[in-house]
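Continuing the series of single-chain predictions for the mutant panel. This is the parent chain; the variants come on the following pages.
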Amino acid sequence: MNLNFQDDPTPVVPLHDSRPRLLLVDDEPRLLSSLYELLRSHAGGDYLLFTAATGAEALVHLARQPFDLVLLDLRLPDMSGHDIMDFMNARAIGGDVVVMSGEVGIDAAIGALKRGAYDYLRKPYGREELLKTVENVLQKRRMALDNERIAAQLETSEKMYRYLVDSSPDIIYTLAPDGRVTFVNDRVQQLLGFERDEVVGRHYSVLVHDDDQDRARFAFGERQGLVRSRVSDTGGRTAELRLKCKNGIDRTFSITLTSMAPNAIGPQDTYGTYGVARDITDRKRAEEMISYQAYHDILTDLPNRMLFKDRLGLAVIQARRKAAELAVMFIDLDRFKLVNDTLGHVKGDELLQQVARRLQDCLRRGDTLARQGGDEFTIVLPELQDRQEARAVAEKLIDSLEAPFDLDGHQVHISASIGIAVYPHDGESIDELLRHADIAMYQVKALGKNGHTFYHQSMQEVSHQKIALERSLRQALELNQLEMYYQPQIDVSTGRIVGAEGLMRWNHPQRGVLSAGEFLPFAEDNGLMLPISDWMLGALCRDLVRWNAAGGEQVKLSLNLSPQYLDRGDFFEKMRGALTRYGIAPEQIEVEITENICIRNPQDAIEQLNKLCELGVSVAIDDFGTGYSSLSYLHRFPIHTIKIDQSFVKEIHDENGHYPVILAIISIARGLGLHLVAEGVETAVQARYLQANGCTTMQGYLYHRPVPLPRFIEILQGQVRLMPDYDVPPMLHAQPVLVAVQA
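Parent structure:
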């Protein structure tokens, strides 16, 4: 990628062009382009900007010409940013490096700093932060170049020497043998607040922090009141010391000491040391912050998984030594995903912070609360008296979450499922205790959530069964055990089939036919929804090919779309590719989405759904009214169909009754000109009420249960009138009952 708009992809600018040269390296085209435009507009043409989208392009630039600054992404398609820094260091290629990376691990940052990176910016970085860093680097280089130029003239010009010393960004000093300061440049006033006259003639120790006095005496080699460098006359020594400031705020300096050779500047009684004190306060703070972040969760400021394991390990050692017990708790928040998906990640993060504070307030001194990740927390209770003490803490934690959480006016209620493992009965190692507490937590989830339980060995078998189910589900894709069933949608005014909803079934070799509700939750939790959705799209198209080949009239088949599948961003391309590959008319397919898709990432959803509509695929809102319904998204999103959820249909017990939610949904569909389908119609009373109030397309057991493709083709080819005689029990008109049930 070349944003310089020049013919040569790696142009060489003449060295007499003094403008700062910046090399921008990032494999994300939009990020690279925005970074280029930001720096170009900020500098107004004062920077020479070069770009590289790969490591190889960056190496070509670096080999051909010098750069003042390299803005480097660590993760590139052909090599890492560390490799590029190693290339520069191995060939002594000058230029500062500022690393910009989305890596959250501490190793990436430490690796960059060890290789000489000037700074490390985490993506997404702030505009002002980036510009300030670039300005600081270039300013530092300008000052360094000034110092080099002045140093070249130092032998012949005392005036130039004075300018060099006083313009240095560092404190330059000399010490007499007794430790008195004999010279210091003006930088001491800017960094420490002291005038030169306040420092010269005084012992260096008056500037050293009290806690660093012993280290300073060792560094300066002070023995019997004399100061000498602890190395030979031709060498030097460096030490980090905290120096006092006049304003009372200490700063950290890297201090270089070098012996002044006898008779080099005067008689031997002037023998002492000279050196440079460089302010590294900001760097030390950055290192401390990186170290802190390596062991703490940035969002909640709680210990992270690594620090928790360290503390749990120490607690286990202490409990073993004292023959005592300790408890490990694994906490998972109930309903957090719903809040996160509907209110957004910002509110979700705020909720996690509030939860962390409430949980922390419930603990005893010495207990450790940590965030494992997502909405999971862990607690270690050392020196446990008995299980009742752990039970009391767990109940206190649950009680603390009962009060609603206020998220900018949104009242949110959540609860927690807590699993408890006790050392040494439930395990003697860190991993055993955490694993068993996790298993106990899932037991609480299975029993209705919002509670706590202690681990028991019998829970292990249940956990193994879940693992076996997950393994079998992965094999089901490979062994072609999945199958699409179809539930017809009936136009009750004509009795004819006008469409069908595709529902997945698993032909399990031991358990028989399983509905989607029995295995899709495992797929969502274990990263299988994407390959399963790919299979479902292909299966639907293959079934349509078989139906079209049978010579029947065209019907529309609907496909339930997982939020994970839509979030991936390539669903449109997959749909278009499948339609082309199988020769399917787009008008034969309708995509069903849930309301939460519209809320969690609305702009991306609008873009993808608009592409589908342009392609000819229609869109339906499934389970309408059960989520966070909003009329605004019905206007913004390209929706063709609303499906009344079966939970509302089940409430119809009297055809002369009044069911305002259903009437409201029917009115919305009519007012917006949307097609309307009622799900889960099981009784004649429900059908008559819906038809009387304007809903004429229905699906449910009153007409058909979901059926495999061959049976569905038979029904379509027969196309018998399916309008039931409401005076006859509906099941007499229904098709034979299948083993599979609706998801």
